[in-house]
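Example record

One chain of 82 residues, shown exactly as stored in the release files.
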Amino acid sequence: MPIVAKFNERERKISDCFLKGFLTSKELANELDIPITTINFFFERAFRIYGVNSRSSLFKILLSEKQDFFIAEIQNFLRDYM
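Predicted structure tokens for this chain:
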């Protein structure tokens, strides 16, 4: 199971916006209407979980997990309905 699946709802929203291109804490906070401190806490936690120390590294991992998730969903759909 991808680690991103273990994020709570708010963390998933932050990671989704991050993957959509809202890259700075200020952009994310404005888009989600939450405090910048919440965004910064998310990144600190995500860095620890994934063992990375940069947003670019985190971005690559989250994007890869999202792609893997959607591929698995499509494969399941095709297996069940084809």
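Notes: The helical segments are 9-19, 25-32, 36-50, 55-81.
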